[in-house]
Amino acid sequence: MDSPAASRTQVTGLLLAGGRGQRMGGADKGLLLHRGQPLAAAPLERLAPQVGTLLISANRNLDRYQALGQPHGAQVVTDTVPDHPGPLAGMLAGLQRADTPWLATVPCDAPALPADLVARLLHAALAAQQPAAVAQTEGRVQPTFCLLHRSLLPTLTEAIASARLAAGRWLAEVGAVPVPFADGSAFANLNHPEDLARHGC
């Protein structure tokens, strides 16, 4: 495990935008407009200063995501397992591509994610000497807001192959450290069309 001197240069950020958008009627959620720009733009901009390099997990509209990530030097990765089985598949693709010891993941529909998210997750993981950390609000973990060490790649590969696809359960299995955040609104997901309307589309 890395020393407490680890910094953001040792972390690759991964924006998870590879879902099927079922609660958005099958739309590519990250590209829906939110306050005049694609929904994925705000979390990407907030994540960029917290990490050394950036990736975007997407499985359609790859050119549009590549253009969205271009100002930040982000590269697009696609699932390496069939049928797009959920966020663990995006995490797997990110770990396979990342050339840093750590991978920090955030969903594409959280425009207010904390500016200190990665630093706090990294500090907690290093302090506890654990290979993962996950944000927690009001006693509930937020499994797509997590930090993973590259040593978890074989374990994650095996979990997906065994169809153990619940991200929260897998993070618990690998000993992810829960990191409390007081402001639950920073982790609000815009999952439905009415959420976009309520937050100003």
Structural class by secondary-structure content: alpha/beta
Largest sheet: 7 strands, mixed
Number of strands: 9
Instruction: Give the terminus-to-terminus CA distance.
Output: 43 Å
As for the CATH topology, it is Spore Coat Polysaccharide Biosynthesis Protein SpsA, Chain A
Task: Describe this entry's structure for a reader.
- The chain has 201 residues and is α/β, with parallel strands linked by helices.
- It has a single domain (9-198), classed as Spore Coat Polysaccharide Biosynthesis Protein SpsA, Chain A.
- Helix content is 30%, strand content 22%.
- It has helices at residues 41-47, 62-69, 87-97, 117-128, 153-161, 167-173, 193-198; strands at residues 11-16, 33-34, 37-38, 53-57, 75-77, 102-107, 132-137, 140-149, 177-180.
- The strands form two sheets. The protein has a seven-stranded mixed β-sheet, sandwiched between helices. A two-stranded antiparallel ribbon has the order 2-3.
- A hairpin with a 2-residue loop joins strand 7 and strand 8 (140-149).
- The protein is globular and about 40 Å long.
- The N and C termini lie far apart (43 Å).
- The relative contact order is 0.19.
Short synopsis of the structure:
Helix content is 30%, strand content 22%.
Architecture blueprint of SSEs:
Layout: E1 11-16, E2 33-34, E3 37-38, H1 41-47, E4 53-57, H2 62-69, E5 75-77, H3 87-97, E6 102-107, H4 117-128, E7 132-137, E8 140-149, H5 153-161, H6 167-173, E9 177-180, H7 193-198
Helix pairs in contact: 3-5
